[in-house]
Q: What sequence folds into this?
């Protein structure tokens, strides 16, 4: 493995880096998307910042929650049980919070509003948990 690969692997062992990198990427991606959607309006920058901050906050809190659940399930030695349990329980907790927020805003569109996030967050949470299992075995 080259120097870059070794440095990346060492960096990923640091919890702060594991939490901050995805949060910053979420800020950039979702902030840019919101700004793009609101181009030509007076609130392009405000929309981009608001969505970027929201993405950063949710991603960092979600990542910390994944880390906590992974730690709390350390007694489960069978990874075929631990990985899906940690992944699903974390994903479900985050989605319950998001569902409550969206339901209070508009109960009629809650599932349509959350649809893309349900899929993206499922992949993110499970990828994160699988990554933690690999780091733990390394």
A:
């Amino acid at each position: 493995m080259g120097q870059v690969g070794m440095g990346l692997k060492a960096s990923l062992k640091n919890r702060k880096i594991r939490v901050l990198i995805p949060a910053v990427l979420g800020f950039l991606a979702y902030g840019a998307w919101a700004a793009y959607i609101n181009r030509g309006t007076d609130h392009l920058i405000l929309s981009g910042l608001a969505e970027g901050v929201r993405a950063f906050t949710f991603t960092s809190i979600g990542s910390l929650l994944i880390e906590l659940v992974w730690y709390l399930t350390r007694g489960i030695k069978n990874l075929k049980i631990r990985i899906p349990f940690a992944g699903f329980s974390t994903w479900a907790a985050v989605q319950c919070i998001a569902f409550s927020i969206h339901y209070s805003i508009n109960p009629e569109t809650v599932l349509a509003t959350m649809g893309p996030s349900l899929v993206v967050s499922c992949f993110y949470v499970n990828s994160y948990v699988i990554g933690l299992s690999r780091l733990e075995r390394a």
Summary: The mean pLDDT is 87.
